[in-house]
Each structure stands twice: as C-alpha cells, then as structure tokens.
TrEMBL record:
Pathway: Phospholipid metabolism; phosphatidylglycerol biosynthesis; phosphatidylglycerol from CDP-diacylglycerol: step 1/2; Lipid metabolism
NCBIfam families reported for this sequence: pgsA (TIGR00560)
Keywords, alphabetical: Cell membrane, Lipid biosynthesis, Lipid metabolism, Membrane, Phospholipid biosynthesis, Phospholipid metabolism, Transferase, Transmembrane, Transmembrane helix
GO cellular component, one term: plasma membrane
Location of the protein in the cell: Cell membrane
Name by which UniProt lists this protein: CDP-diacylglycerol--glycerol-3-phosphate 3-phosphatidyltransferase
Catalytic activity: a CDP-1,2-diacyl-sn-glycerol + sn-glycerol 3-phosphate = a 1,2-diacyl-sn-glycero-3-phospho-(1'-sn-glycero-3'-phosphate) + CMP + H(+)
EC top class, as a word: transferase
Organism: Desulforamulus putei DSM 12395
GO molecular function, one term: CDP-diacylglycerol-glycerol-3-phosphate 3-phosphatidyltransferase activity
Membrane disposition: Multi-pass membrane protein
C-alpha cells in the first residue's frame, strides 16, 4: 500500500464525509461540502503525479483511481439533483458517459489494449470539478455581476463531457475496425 494508493483510498473515504455534510443541512454546510469535495478532488492529480514520478504505478491504483473519481463526481451530481440545483438529465449524461468509457476500456483491457486517459478526458474532469464546486458555492462570488457561474461552468463541463466521450468512442471504433479488440 504505497502513498498514491493511500491518497486514492482517502478520496474514497472522503465521499461519505462530503455526503454527510451536504445531507445534514448544517450552517455553511454547502461551503464545507465544497471544501471537502475540493480536498478529495485534489488527491486525484496528486496520487497520479506521485505514482508516475516515483514509479509506484500499481494494478490496484489503476483500478481504484478511476473508480474513486467516478464515485466522487457521481455522488456530487446525484446530491445536486436531489437538492434541486441540477437537472437530472445533466447528471445522467455525465454519469452515462463514465459508464460508456469504462465499458470501452474494459473491452479493450480484456484484449490487452489500454485506452489511456486523454487530454480531453482530463479537461472534462477539471471542468466537472469546477462546475460542482461552483454550484455548491451558490454563485456567491459572481452574483453581483448578474450571471450564474455554476450554470455556466456546468454547461462547459457538459460540453467537455460530450466531446471527450465522442473522442473515446471514436478511438474505440478505430481499434475495433483494426481488429485490436
């Protein structure tokens, strides 16, 4: 159990903390939840960086890291829908894209082909994290300008979700045509 894997597990353990803070409806709960979410999300880049830098990439880490990411983002999206802050179709689209990409990767992996995370996939993750945090912060910092940063950020996240999903499908389709899986 190396440091990157511990960070991934910490991210997974922070999910129930995040959910508890949101659902308990305590004073400043959404702000605290946003902080817990940012803390959890920050371990994503950190664990990967440490694993690559120190040559500590493990099979467990390859499995747990994307799972932790998907659980964190999915739980936040579902809570936002429950709280009436996000349309269900947005959550379904984002979560559905995650299932689709995971399925493509699983099919490829069964034949020994690795479909690595793309730059678009990384941008998708960053935009989703920003959008989720912005939605939990209730547009506090931008309400005086007359626009809803959370909604705008979520629209950008949806754009990158669709674009990166199409990119993965395209790559998967090309591999299928080549007979690589």
């Amino acid at each position: 159990m190396n440091l990157p894997n511990r960070l991934t597990l910490a991210r997974m353990f922070l999910i129930p903390v995040f959910l508890a803070v949101v659902t308990l409806r305590i004073k400043y709960g959404d702000i605290i939840a946003a902080g817990v979410f940012v803390l959890a999300a920050s371990t994503d880049g950190l664990d990967g960086y440490i694993a690559r830098k120190n040559k500590q990439v493990t099979t467990l880490g390859k499995f747990m890291d994307p799972l932790a990411d998907k659980l964190l983002v999915s739980s936040a999206l579902i809570v936002l829908v429950e709280l009436g802050k996000l349309s269900a179709w947005v959550a379904v689209l984002i979560i559905g894209r995650e299932f689709m990409v995971t399925g493509l990767r699983a099919i490829a992996a069964a034949d020994g082909v690795v479909i690595s995370a793309s730059k678009l996939g990384k941008w998708k993750t960053v935009t989703q994290i920003i959008a989720i945090v912005a939605m939990f912060l209730h547009n506090v910092t931008f309400q005086f300008l007359g626009f809803d940063l959370g909604k705008i950020a979520m629209a950008v996240a949806v754009f990158f979700t669709i674009w990166s999903g199409a990119d993965y499908v395209s790559k998967g389709w090309h591999l299928l045509k080549k007979g690589e899986y």
